[in-house]
Amino acid sequence: MLKDFFLMLSDFIVKNPLIWICCLASFVLSSVFIPIIIKLCKKHGWYDSVNARKVHKGNIPRLGSMGFVPAFTIMMAVYVLIVRDSSKTMIPFVIAGFVIFVFGIIDDFLDLRAIVKLFIQIIAALIVLIGGFRFKQFYIWTIPAPLGYLITFCWIIGIINAYNLIDGVDGLCGGLSAITLLALGIIYSRSVTDTAAACFILIAAICGFLLYNKPKAKIFMGDGGSQFLGFMIAALPLYQTTATFETNKFFIVINLVSIPLIDCIAAIWRRIRDHRGIMSPDRSHLHHKLMNMGCSVGQILLILLGLQSVICIMCGIAMALKGTAALVLLICTFAGVNVFFCAIHYANRAVIQKQKVLEEK
């Protein structure tokens, strides 16, 4: 099984030199653009705001997306121009991604109201749906078109916001995104080369950004970056691929985004329970709880990126197993992530109670 996997991957690498050239150029452009953006931000005072959800101190530029998104876009455009067959299918994703990115940047400057951001996300989701992209299969059952469009609509908006919310610690959103895109890229390398190319070129751009976003970060990606990454991770799996992937696609992608997704669902539930707006900031996200338990930023990254890597490996094994065995593994993996969240939740609660007891003494 492993031998076949590595043979397939090495064959893909050898046969697609253009992708790796574009990846290298994407990394270089991103790593060159980011220092320029940092200087511009410092010159004009474009720093990240501090609120109840943020953990950083001091003035940190927040427009990192203006470095890695253009780097990805430029090299993806070069790839599409050379491989002309890919241009038509990419159009809805390019337009919708551009809308998300531009209004994310505007939000970084103007702090748009939640309803405005939701409206923009709805427009982006509708562009993808009009392009004909949707979930079409749930295990062995075909999803009726109206239901498929509804699920896809909720999926895109949900994942955009999930990645926006998880962007609270240096390197976390970028790291999670890069590992997830690597898994998607490997999956698509079996069948849809253009989609695999988009994944790998975006990973390279993110890595150029992470050079400056690793602890202690010199720049943050901002809403323009986190929402763009959330959109791309939500949209790219909508491409059709092999029957093996299509059968378990829904379960695979749910697992791949399980860390930000469960964190987002928990945040919404927490705010509804406390009678607060669902978009109101707080310090009860997964990374906040780990920090409250005494973990450093580096340890948080090690824990969560390590967990994300395990999830991706489980999804890869499921792709090889196929059928019912794959489904069982994917369900168990998702359950395991939920158990992890519950363990952190109760461990954090115990820490808070202990702190209260000490304060009372």
UniProtKB/TrEMBL annotation:
InterPro entries cross-referenced by the UniProt entry: Glycosyl_transferase_4, PNAcMuramoyl-5peptid_Trfase_CS
Cofactor dependence: Mg(2+)
One of the GO biological process terms: lipopolysaccharide biosynthetic process
Topology term for the membrane: Multi-pass membrane protein
Coiled-coil annotated residue ranges, if any: none
Residues that, per the record, bind Mg(2+): 164, 223
Keywords per UniProt: Cell membrane, Magnesium, Membrane, Metal-binding, Transferase, Transmembrane, Transmembrane helix
Domain of life: Bacteria
A GO CC annotation given for this chain: plasma membrane
Transmembrane segments: 18-41, 62-83, 89-106, 118-135, 147-165, 172-189, 195-212, 219-238, 250-269, 290-319, 325-347
GO MF annotations, alphabetized: metal ion binding; phosphotransferase activity, for other substituted phosphate groups
Chief location of this protein within or outside the cell: membrane
Cell membrane keyword on record: yes
Compartments (UniProt record): Cell membrane
Name of the protein in question: Undecaprenyl/decaprenyl-phosphate alpha-N-acetylglucosaminyl 1-phosphate transferase
